[in-house]
Fold this protein.
Amino acid sequence: MRIDILTIFPNMFSPFDESIIKRARDNNILDINIHDIREFSLEKHKNVDDYPFGGGAGMIMMVEPIVLAIEYVRKINSGKVIFLGPRGKTFNQNMAKEYSLQKELIFVCGHYEGVDERVFEFIDEEISLGDFILTGGEMAAIPIIDSISRLIPGVLSSSESLSEESFSGDLLEYPQYTRPRDFRGLSVPEVLLSGHHLNIKKWRQSESMRITEKYRPDLKNKN
């Protein structure tokens, strides 16, 4: 998959140079490209924001550099142009699966007090990370792109790790344990030590439902 990110803070995406995502990039499974919107500014000092017409607090990102950046990237990426903003549908695992099937995607990160409304004439979709305020779209783009990327075949080392994760089937993942078998009187459930795979599977299914009902009943009610 090819992903292009438009931002005014390209250094914020250094997490993609680490861990699993870095390995996927090194193996040419994932192609992530960062573009600085400031490079498309026609202003003398490469400004990308200005005061809002009609007055008001803060600065607004100008339409021209964003649109020029989008048009440039669209020459090399034919994917959907996605804006990270509060008016979009709240992102979830099902959306991650849908996006992971695409070959190309373009993400546009807003900042300051927002973007010129005319920018949305050049946007295909808007998605939100949740009903809270972030300093910019960059902070939302990182987890969203990460969640999409790890669903691409070859990014993770085991397909099993995908099928049993939290939110697969709208349930939270069952409890996990490793050594030692006993820690300060806290013991690993005996069923996990039994070697009986069917009983282990039943226990995990039961625990997934119990934990989901306890911590996220809204998810369980979807089933």
